[in-house]
Each structure stands twice: as structure tokens, then as C-alpha cells.
Amino acid sequence: MKPLLAGNWKMHGLSGSAKVLARRLAELDLTSMDIDVVVFPPNVHARIVFDEIAKSDLGLGAQNMSEHASGAFTGEISGEMLREVGCDYVLVGHSERRSLFSESSDLVAEKFRSAQSSRMTPILCVGESLEQRQQGMTSKVIDEQIDAVLNLVGPSDLCRGVIAYEPLWAIGTGKVASPMQAQKVHAEIRAKLGGEGSGTRLLYGGSLTSKNAAGLFAEPDIDGGLVGGASLDGEEFIKIARLLA
Ligand code: 13P
């Protein structure tokens, strides 16, 4: 399968820096690299980024979306609105959404379904906290997060999405999971998906940089990365992309 590198810009930068970063990334020759690279700017910069990358093979995504198609939902953005500005991907259930904005696994599942109804590829983010890992609950937590989506959309639609394993203790901490730790979880996710999941892309995220990416990308069930902080530095993000190619 074609590897995927996703850059989650979170709530960083203004339009000027978004434009500069997008322009630099648009120079990447992705055809020769044979990987997909997608950036996830803040929604308000989506159009600016889209205009910069329109002629490149770079993809555009959103960091979040409403589970509703339209209506009186002040402050929310629908899948169709994101499609219209050029988004092909959307993150659902990022741990910051789950923990800071109280998104439940059932709500995340609704968002996953809504993204697919809007013809976008959802990237379902899952992961355990340090406390949950120390209590031996990693598999249980990830099972529960995936089951909510599986129960709502069924195995085929789940497998058409992307799953990103992002352990909470590795996000923004500089403490990356070891290739062995990440591979163990990815293999469990792959096994859970069954036959249809052999082509589902499973990404690792959490303090991913050009210094640690090679070891992680070498693992058989790690098909790419979801990068936060390091995706804001164009040269660094390109280095990570080259390690995946
Ligand atoms: P960092 O790469 O900054 O740890 O963030 C990971 C992440 O949350 C990507 O979605």
C-alpha cells in the first residue's frame, strides 16, 4: 500500500506562515517518492493552503468536523464545507479533541461516518494515556475506541479509513514510542481489522521527527506518520517524508 504522511499543524501560525509552509511543501516531487503527503492547517487557512498546493500532489485535510450535515450548530463546520475548500481527509477523535473537548468515542464514530458521507477519508486517532499503559489497559482502550466506529459503520467502511495510533504520553512530549512498542499496538489493530484491513493504512503519531522516524517506518505494520510539531518546519517535514519514501 502507498504510505501516508500527515502533518497536523494544530492551532499554529497565521495566514502568512501557512502560505510559506504550503508553498515549500508543494515543491516536493511526490510522484517519484510514491507516498501520499497531506497537510492539516487550521480551517481558516484551508483556502490559502489549497491555492498554494493546487498544482502539486499534496493533499489537504481538516483537523476536525461536525458530525452533522448542516443546521443550527454555531461554530461548527460540516463535511461538505470542508470538501468545498478542497479537503480530502479529516482527523477524527484526535486525543486533544477527546480530552480537551470531551469528545466521546460514540461522537467520534458519528464524525467518522459523516466524513465518509461527505466523500472524505477520515483518519481515526486512537491512543492510551500513560496511566492506562501502566495499568496494562492499552489494548482495551484502543479496542473500545475502534469498536465504537466498527459498530456504527461496519468493517468495510472502517477499513476504508485510516487509523492513527497516537499514545497520549508521546504527543508533544519528546517521548516517542519505541518501534517495538508501536509495532505491537499496530499489529493488534491490524489483527482486529481482519482480512479487509490488510490495505488499511495505520499511522504512528507522537513526537515523530526525522531523528526517530526511520526505525518506526521500518516496522511492518507502520504505514506512515501523523506529525504535529515537526510538521511546522518545512525542511524537517520533508526529511520525514523522504524517510517514508
Ligand atoms: P507531536 O508530533 O507534536 O507530538 O504531535 C503529535 C500529534 O498530536 C499529531 O496529531
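^ 1,3-dihydroxyacetonephosphate complex. The pocket of 1,3-dihydroxyacetonephosphate is lined by residues 8, 94, 166, 171-172, 205-208, 226-230 (CB under 6 Å). The first strand starts at residue 4 and ends at 8.
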